[in-house]
Structure formats: C-alpha cells, structure tokens
Amino acid sequence: xxxxxxxxxxxxxxxxxxxxxxxxxxxxxxxxxxxxxxxxxxxxxxxxxxxxxxxxxxxxxxxxxxxxxxxxxxxxxxxxxxxxxxxxxxxxxxxxxxxxxxxxxxxxxxxxxxxxxxxxxxxxxxxxxxxxxxxxxxxxxxxxxxxxxxxxxxxxxxxxxxxxxxxxxxxxxxxxxxxxxxxxxxxxxxxxxxxxxxxxxxxxxxxxxxxxxxxxxxxxxxxxxxxxxxxxxxxxxxxxxxxxxxxxxxxxxxxxxxxxxxxxxxxxxxxxxxxxxxxxxxxxxxxxxxxxxxxxxxxxxxxxxxxxxxxxxxxxxxxxxxxxxxxxxxxxxxxxxxxxxxxxxxxxxxxxxxxxxxxxxxxxxxxxxxxxxxxxxxxxxxxxxxxxxxxx
Length: 392
Hints:
Largest sheet: 2 strands, antiparallel
Helix content: 55-70%
Strand content: under 5%
Shape: globular
Oligomer: single chain
Number of strands: 2
C-alpha cells in the first residue's frame, strides 16, 4: 500500500506580528487614536472602500498629469498623490481595528481588505516609477517583483494559516510609507533628485544602457532604491517558499498536499512570462496602459487565491478569466505594433481601444469578486452592519 501523501496545514486566520515600527509606534500612537474617532455605526468595509478609492485617486492624478510616467507633472500633483496614498495607508490600517472595535469582523471583510492590497501593489509601483524616473525595463522588473512578493505572501498565508508581510525590521508598513516619502520628495526636490548619478565610475547599469551594448549607463539614486527593494523582496519571497514547502506534516482533513501547494504557483509563473513578453513590446510606447493591464492580470490570479482561502473557486470560471487576460494582453500587443507607424491619430485610437479592453476586463473581474464576497458573507449586506459591542 502506497504511503499517504503529506498534507499541509489547513488555513486558519492569524493576526500578523508586524514590524517594530508598527507595533511600537504606528499602531498605538497613530492608528489606534484615529480608529477611536470613527463612529461606531461605520461599517469597517466602508473604511476599506475609502482606502481603495484613495489609492486609485493617488494613481489617477499622476496618470492624468504625467501620462508617460516620466515625472513631468507639477509639484502640487505629487503632494496630492502622496497625501491620497497616506490616506489609503491610514484606512488600510484602521479598518481591522474598527471591525474588532464594533464586533463586525467577517471573512468577507478580510477578503475585501486583502483584495484591495492586491490592486495597490500595482498602483504603488506605477506611482513610484513616475516619481523616480524609472525606465520601462526598471518598471517591468519592479512590477514583477511586487507581484511575486504579494502573491507568495498570500500563498504562504493560505497554506500555513500564518500571515506575514515582511520581517520585524522591514515590512509592508515601511514599504508603503517609503512610497509616500518618495512621491512627496519628487514634489519638493523634483524628479532630478532621483535621477542624479549615484555611481559614475565603471558604469555597469544595464537598465539605463546607451546606444550600444557596451555603453552602459550609470546607476542613479532611484535605481539604487529600487534594487535594494528587489533584494529584500526576493529574500523574503524565497524564505516564504522554503518555509511553506517544508511544512509537510499530515493534517487530518486538510485536503491540501504538497503537490497542490506547488501547482497553485503555476498561474503566477504564467503571469510573469506574459508580463515580460508584453511589457518588452508595449511598455516603451504606453507604460500606463501596459502597467495597468499587467496589474489587472495579476489581480485576477491573486484575488482568486485570496478568495479561495474561504471557499472553492470554480476551475472553469478560473480558466475563463485566464483566457480573458491572455486575449487582452494579445490585443494590447497587436495594437501597440500597429501604432508604431508614428501616426498620432492611430496611436491615440489604439490607446483608447486598449483602455476599453482594460475597462471590460476590470468590470468582469469586479463583478466576479463581488459575487465571491457575497458568497463568503452569506448574502448579508457588505457595507451595512450593526455594532455588536454597544456600551450598555
């Protein structure tokens, strides 16, 4: 008789430990007092929704005034964007406190919160790319690293039941605050502050190459900050992978095997390959559209992972979403190739068509996510609830 396959621990929600900055300063002295100002009738999912709106506004104003992500917007744009992103951070860190304070914690609220964080992983990278003057290649790598890190953290959470977003010294809290500081810095100092040469001798930066393969450009301050984030994110991701895959003790009724855990990473691999292929072809022409489409592709696979923590995801529906992503990326690739003729009217029309494709994809994705939240919430209103801890 063949030995039973080792199973991984079943999913169980646990509160993340948080970094030292969060536990010793941000939570007790900033987020806790702010959450006390919320009226007790305010549903925590409304707080999450406000954070989502703030994050999208933070990106939208950048895309409106700097559509090529080249840091050409006025200073006030970056101040407004940084303020809106800080609002997102505040809402994101106080929605859970409001839920526990009023007794309105729910699986749907947790899923909604993680879903918003998934979309912000793309928006924040596009904002930083504009603020620091990243090249299309740098932006592509930045997006892929952010997507892989976010996916693997949620994957680790699902398999092991332990939520961890970084370490005790550097975590998602420091990363989001760094985004605010960087964007505000662009408003104060200008993009030139991040594009100044950081390493001049023996130029070896392949991300700012010159006209020939041997003429490699110098490393800028913005490049250095990006590379540091890559190194730490890759280290954290590898640690999560080994920790998760090494947990192979049989657990009765978990229904998860080591093979299942590895197989669930395949959509991420497909997403990375598609992003590299499409971004290399379309990124230099239309970085905002290309970056957003890669973000929607990532949201499709990451939100499926987040939702699957609560109930089984239909495999047929998953394949249809994957097919939609592939077709949308193919459409963007084709339209970008057609626009290389240099005709501005054609380029504009193709850009509008690409945005329509993205709009349809986002709409179908949001509807599917809303349906999943309704299932998790048992048909109860998502943004209306009763304070279960009213003082007598």
